[in-house]
Amino acid sequence: MIRILWYIVIIAILATGAAWLADRPGDVAVVWQGYRIETSVAVAVLLVLAVVVVALLAWSVLRMILRTPDLLGSATTGRRRARGFTALSRGMIAVGSGDAAMARRYALEAGKLLGREPMTLLLRAQAAQLAGDRKTAEAAFNAMLEQPETRVLGLRGLYVEARRKGDLANAFIFAGKAAQLDPAVGWANEAMLEHLGAQRRWREALTMLERRLATGRMDRDLARRQRAVLLTADAMDSADADPDGALDAARQAAKLAPDLVPAVALHGRLLSRQGALRKAARVLEAGWKQSPHPEIAAAYIDMRPGDSALDRLDRARNLQRLTPGHAEARIIVARTAIDAREYDRARAMLEPLLKDRPPARVCLMMAEIAEHGPAGSGAVREWLARASRAPRDPGWIADGVVSDHWEPISPVSGRLDAFVWATPTELLGAHPAAWASEDVIADGDEATAVGYLQGAEAEADVTTRSAGKVIEATVAPQGEAAIGKSAPTAAPPPAAAVVKPPERRDGAEKSSAASPSPPATVGAEPRPKGDAAVTAGLASKAEARADEEAAARPRVVASRPQPSEVVFPMAYAPDDPGPVRDDDEAVQPISRRINL
C-alpha cells in the first residue's frame, strides 16, 4: 500500500512538472564553434536526461569490466568456503557418531579449504581426541590460544587433556587462567572450587564465588547454596582457632540454607559452647522442624554438658513433641531412654517401627532392650540375626561413598556439596557371610558372627572366583553347616533340591510342603563353634576342597535365596521368641544354608 502511494506521488510530481513546462514555452539556443543550435525547453530537458542515462550505463559497463577479476576470485573463494563448511559440518557429524577416520579426513579437508578458522581447529582437536592422538589435540588447543575468541575453549581442552594424563597441577593452572579471562565460565569455576576445596582454602573459594556471582550469569539459588556450604566448611575448620569467626560463618550459612543440616547443627553447638543455651535451643528446634536429622538431635540433646541421662531424655521427648509422627524422633527417644535404663519406654517407642522391615540400628536397640528383659539371650540372638539382614541405616552418601559425617566436597570427584543424606542401596540378596553369621549367632558365638559380617565385603571377590566351583552346603537339624569331605556311606542329595528356611511360630519349627526337612549331611564336616578365624578360613578351605574332590563327587548347585527368603522368619513377637532354654541347653534350631 505504501509503495502504491509513493508511485502515485512520483507520477503526480512528473505530471505537474510537465504541465508547468507546457504552460511556459520557450526556446533554447546554443552557439558553439560557429554552430547555432536552437530548440524548445522541453526538448532540451529530454536531451539532458538522455545524456545522463547514457553516461550512467557506460559507467556501469566499464565498472563491471574492471571488477571482473575480483568477481571471479570472490566466486572461487565462496565455493571454497562452501566446500569447507560442508566438510566442517560432516566432520562434526562424524565426531558425534564416533567415526574417527572420517572425522580426521574431514578435519584435514576443512583445514585446507578454510585455513585457521576457529571451528576447523576445534574439529581437528576433537578428531584427534577421538583417535587417541593426544599430541595433535594439544597442538590444536594451543593454536586456539592465539585467537581471543577461542582462548577459553583452548584452555578447556588443555585442562581436559591434563586431567586425563593425571597432571592436576597444570590442569588447575589452565582452569585458573580461564576463570580470570571469563569469571562466568562454569567449568573453570567448578574446577577451581574443587582445587581450593581440596586444599581447604575456603576463603579464596568464597571470593571466587562472589566474583562469579557479580557477573550476573550464575543462578542465585545455586550461589546461595554453595556459599552456605563454603561458610559451613570454613566454620568447621576454624571452630577451635577462631570461635567468634566460626560462629558468624555458621550463622550466615544457616540463614542462607536453612535445610543444610551440618550448618544448623554447627550453629547450635557453637552457641551452646559460648553459653547461649536458649538461643541454641531455638536454632536447633527450628532446624529440627525443617529437617529431623540425627545430627541436629545429637546437638540438641548434648547441648549442656554434664546433664543426667534423664535430662537428656526430657530434651529428646521435647523433639518428639515438635515432630510427633516422625520415625527419627522415636528412635532418638528410644536411644536416650536406653541410656537412662528406661527399657519399657524405649520398647514402646520402637514398637510402631517394627511392623515393616526395621533398619539395623532399630534391631540393635531391640537386642539391647531384650538383653535387660525377661526373654533372655534367645531374644538377643534373634535381634542380632535380624540386624545382620536388616536394611541399612541412612548415611551421608557422595559418588557411591557412604560416610559417617558430612564433608563439603566429595572424596571421589572433589565436587562441592556432593554429600546427601540417604539410605544406601540394598543388595538383591544376602551375602554368604551374612547367612553364616546367623548360624553362628544361633550357636551362641556372637564374636564370630561379627567377624563374618566384617569380612563380607572381603569375601565377595572369593565368591566370584569360585563361582565355577560349586560347593554343596546343607545344614543339620542342629543348625551346624556341612562343608567338606564326602562320606562314603551316604548318597548326595538330588540336584534340584532346595532347602528354604522354615517358618517358626511360638517357638516351634514349621517347614513348607515344598521344602522337606534336609537329609542327613552328605560329606559333612562340622563347623567348629567359636573359631575366631572362621571368616577367612571357610572360603579358602571350601575352594581348595572343591578343586580336590571335583572329579570324585557330583556337583550340586546350592540355590541362593530370593529376596523374599532373605527376610528373617519372624511371625511371633520379636522380644518373646518362645520357649528359650539357658545357654548350656540346646536352642531351638532353624535350618539355614551357607553359600560360599
Number of strands: 9
- Please count the helical segments: 25
The helical percent reads: 55-70%
**Strand numbers in spatial order across the main sheet:** 4-3-5
The average pLDDT is 76
Q: Note poorly predicted spans.
A: 430-443, 456-539, 550-596
Strand residue percentage? 5-15%
Q: What is the end-to-end distance?
A: 91 Å
Write down the Rg: 42 Å
Biggest sheet statistics: 3 strands, antiparallel
Shape: elongated
Helix/sheet category:
mainly alpha
Subcellular location: Membrane
Domain HemY N-terminal: 26-132
Keywords: Membrane, Transmembrane, Transmembrane helix
Organism: Camelimonas fluminis
Would you summarize the structure shown here?
Among the domains are: 65 residues, no CATH class; 63 residues. It has 25 helices and nine strands. Strands 4-3-5 form a three-stranded antiparallel β-sheet, with no helix packed on it. It has a two-stranded antiparallel ribbon with strand order 1-2. Strands 6-7 form a two-stranded antiparallel ribbon.
What does this structure look like?
- The protein has 596 residues and is mainly alpha-helical.
- Among the domains are: 2-66, no CATH class; 82-144.
- Helices cover 58% and strands 5% of the residues.
- It has helices at residues 2-23, 41-66, 68-97, 100-114, 118-131, 134-144, 151-165, 168-181, 186-198, 202-214, 220-237, 243-256, 261-273, 277-290, 294-301, 309-322, 327-339, 343-350, 360-371, 377-389, 432-442, 446-454, 460-465, 534-548, 563-566; strands at residues 27-32, 35-40, 395-398, 401-403, 420-422, 474-475, 481-482, 503-505, 508-510.
- The strands form 4 sheets. The chain has a 3-stranded antiparallel sheet, with no helix packed on it. The chain has a two-stranded antiparallel ribbon with strand order 1-2.
- β3 (395-398) and β4 (401-403) form a beta hairpin.
- α8 packs across α9 and α20 (377-389) runs antiparallel to α21.
- It is elongated and about 145 Å long.
- It starts with a helix and ends in a 30-residue tail after the last helix.
- Mean pLDDT is 76; it is low at 430-443, 456-539 and 550-596.
- Keywords: Membrane, Transmembrane, Transmembrane helix.
- It comes from Camelimonas fluminis.
- Residues 26-132 form the HemY N-terminal domain.
- Residues 482-596 are annotated as: Disordered.
- Residues 542-552 have a biased composition (Basic and acidic residues).
